Amino acid sequence: MSRLAFLIASAIGGSLFLVYCFYFDRKRRNHPDYKKKLRERRETQKSVSEIFQELSQTSPTGNGDSPLEDFPDSSDKLALQVFFMRELQIGEVCLARGEVEEGTTHLANAVVVCGYPPRIMELLRSSLSSVVFERLLQKIPSISAKFAASSKGSDSSVRAPLAVFDEDVE
């Protein structure tokens, strides 16, 4: 008798759950902002997929180093911000695809042009594995030197944040 009661109770519970799901799905779809939010989410997904497609079509640089012409002018703050965001995105995508060398190179590019590297390094330390983070730490000095060489005459603005970063990490 208790087995039959359990089956009936579970059937009633399951059907109530389905009714609950249908009710709130209908309520969600009838919300005034539903179509607007759905459109925004689809546009965001489309732009993200376009970025992934664009990145998958680019070929790796071979040795993992970024050419000097990729660095923006260090006096142009907007170009540095755009470069920073692009390098972070490319680095994340490369790491997600398993390309550790190229991913750490792009992340190191982002750290080098960042206005306050200790903050971004703490974020990367918490989100990356220890092996990938160590590889990133190894790449930063060489990329920092390349960035300093590519930015003509603005070595004080480039080296000051990295000196703070070096003291914090070691």
Automatic annotation (TrEMBL):
Segments passing through the bilayer: none
GO cellular component: mitochondrial outer membrane translocase complex
A single BP term in Gene Ontology: protein targeting
Gene3D superfamilies: Mitochondrial outer membrane translocase complex, subunit Tom20 domain
Cellular compartments annotated: Mitochondrion outer membrane
Topology of the protein relative to the lipid bilayer: Single-pass membrane protein
Keyword annotations of the record: Membrane, Mitochondrion, Mitochondrion outer membrane, Transmembrane, Transmembrane helix
Family matches, as InterPro entries: MAS20, Tom20_dom_sf
Pfam families reported for this sequence: MAS20 (PF02064)
GO MF, one annotated term: mitochondrion targeting sequence binding
Family of the protein in this entry: Belongs to the Tom20 family.
UniProt-recorded name of the protein: Uncharacterized protein
